[in-house]
């Protein structure tokens, strides 16, 4: 079995060593133009030339959860796309989102500023029941995030394409459920995949329909959010602020207004990192299962886009 590794911005050596240890019978190499055909590929943002040359690939293992960049390419005919299925990302996403929501709800930023300025002032506790959180996307990551928020006793709404039942979460689905979902939510957390249906989904119209004092946490993809609309709504006082981990242009330009806006917190696409050991173990398990002809989880449906 031949496995090729083609991951932009990723140090190849530790991945090769890990994959080789997990799949001792495999021949694993870093892809280069003109490389011999492989059976499986481990990829992140490969060039189109890779896809064109590796026409016989059986499965492409994406070393991330989101496959939008991969599906934008012309894929080898017959190649299955397999996304990372949690692999240690869900707990990180739960930490990140709960931190952002709790920090906003408890006004920790204002307390920290007061303390730095020599103050010792109490703020009136806010009502948790006034801070309903809406999680868009109830997949591998969104479900974990919604459950974690529910543990903090926030009212939690969830929105997915198909109907879902998640304990502690008021579930909405489909286009018909979107208005009700937005109207019921004050804090909006985005964990949707980027597809033609979800691009620009957070815009002036949809964000205006959040409850007054709305807050946005975007941890999925930058192209889900119309950034100028967000800034305009915050400046107009309709939204209280945002925490953004992803941006339409990454890296975010050094002089971008989102970096310095006083009501926006930014991080450099780091809310749920790919963890090498967990990812290698998952990919190796799936390759072995595929070779035995067994089904594996996390196969992407290219028509759905996720
Ligand atoms: P997933 O398991 O594929 O879940 C996607 C969820 O979105 C599902 O609940 C799906 O509904 C819902 N959905 C898709 N299209 C929809 C639509 N048009 N309307 C309503 N709901 C829709 O994905 P995941 O693993 O949770 O990951 C979500 C995204 O997070 C990834 O695609 C990636 O972009 C992003 N991500 C970001 C980071 C980071 O560091 N910032 C890290 C990892 C992932 P159904 O349940 O009905 O199918
Ligand atoms: C990161 O953004 C991922 O999709 O895993």
Report on this model:
The protein has 306 residues and is of the alpha/beta class. It has two domains: 104 residues, 3-Layer(aba) Sandwich (Rossmann fold), CATH 3.40.50; 177 residues, Rossmann fold (3-Layer(aba) Sandwich), CATH 3.40.50.720. 34% of the residues lie in helices and 18% in strands. The strands form two sheets. It has a seven-stranded parallel β-sheet with strand order 8-7-6-9-10-11-12, with helices on both faces. It has a five-stranded parallel β-sheet with strand order 2-1-3-4-5, covered by helices on one side. α4 crosses α6. It binds NADP nicotinamide-adenine-dinucleotide phosphate and glyoxylic acid. The site of glyoxylic acid has 4 residues, from loops.
In short:
The mean pLDDT is 97. The chain has helices at residues 12-22, 48-53, 68-71, 89-105, 108-116, 140-151, 174-183, 204-208, 227-235, 257-260, 276-291, and strands at residues 2-7, 27-30, 40-44, 59-62, 80-82, 133-136, 156-160, 169-173, 187-190, 214-218, 239-244, 264-266.
